[in-house]
Amino acid sequence: METYRIFDSELEKLSQKVIQMCSQVNQQINDSLTALKDNDLKLAKKVVENDKEINTLDVKIDRLCQKIFALQQPVARDLRYILSALKINNDLERVGDHAVNIAKRIAPLEDYRQLVTDLGVDQVSAEISSLFSDVLDLVKTHDLEYCQKIYHHSATVKEGCRAIAERILNEMMEKSEVVIVASNILIIVNLIERIASYSNNIAESITFVVDGEIVKHRKNIQ
Amino acid sequence: MAHEKIQTENMFLHYGSKLALNDISIQIPEKKVTAFIGPSGCGKSTFLRSLNRMNDLIDGVKIEGKILIDGINIYDNNIDVVTLRKKVGMVFQKSNPFAKSIYENVAYGPRINGVKDKKQLDEIIETALQNAAIWTEVKDRLGDSAMGLSGGQQQRLCIARTLAVNPEIVLMDEPASALDPLSTSKIEELIVQLKEKYTIVIVTHNMQQAARISDLTAFFYLGELIEFDKTKKIFTNPEKKQTEDYITGRFG
Q: Within 13 Å of residue B95, how many CA atoms lie on the same side as its CB?
């Protein structure tokens, strides 16, 4: 016999906000990477401005979780969901910041578009976009099938980023005139790598909600 | 794993033709707090009362299976129920002090058990009142009527009365459900202290109370023991969907 819980409407509200947060962050990543690819400074500026909305949503989610903890004393899956919502929210906020940091580094690269492409940044950009769209689907559906895809994809992105970093260092050693611009590219690549790590965290948090299993720090995730 | 103080094996209980407890097998460890939770009518209080044969007083009750305390079946013919209830004390939902002085309330049990020496009795009473965390509040008015105490104090006095006969197990049937939050928190604190010396089994409708004070939690539903595990596990990641639905308030 199912009963109506006042609690359910609060949980639904929280769930909608987390999905909204994830969807907005996903948009920020896509815009930021598109701006990088197309040298679109206007779009880059929009990304920087939109961060405010994400920060507002971040605080709203924190407050809602706080309210549910204080007033509903959640247990079991409800508890795991709210704990994870807090962590996922935190991770998403950081990813949003990274999208902004990428956007802020596009202007100095204006005259070096070819170098960006030659180093293979476009490819990891496309991969991280596709990876994060899986994260969004996972957050929407809680279907753990996405997790393995995310872990796998994230490993590929990280590998790609490290290879680029190596190429950048070689480039810097050979041509001292590109040092400043290459440092900017290096930072962007590091940010992309960080986004891949946060994607893993989010997949781990959703696994905890569904299974109650803490899978973070486990080596050899297949 | 701690010593199994109470153990039941395939226990069934009928009220007349109605099956109230269906095949209960459980092992309750010594010197831990074990909480029974479940919706009204699930059998948790009936089960609690079986553990010191309080159900013997109800007509038409039939019990099958084994209930062992320290390995001895308490429903064996040679068991003396009075001795059993001395070993397995009970505290009820509604505090029920005798209309006597505070001192006499606690002295009642030891006197029945033959303690006559005044000095010895005084010692037993002081220890019991201290263990029940009420000594400092009543030590200067032991001769006053117990009826003048507040609800929370009366309940702690009843706990002292139970402890005065030196039990090994204390059964509690919703001991704090009629108390205000402050008295409730005193009783809860007391229960956690008591497990150093006693095995505590508590029935509670307050799930947060079970979560706060118990080491193990048993969930009963429709006369069956659905799940029994560490409290931490039950309240974070229970195995059974019925348990999850109950503790999260989805039914019941």
A: 26
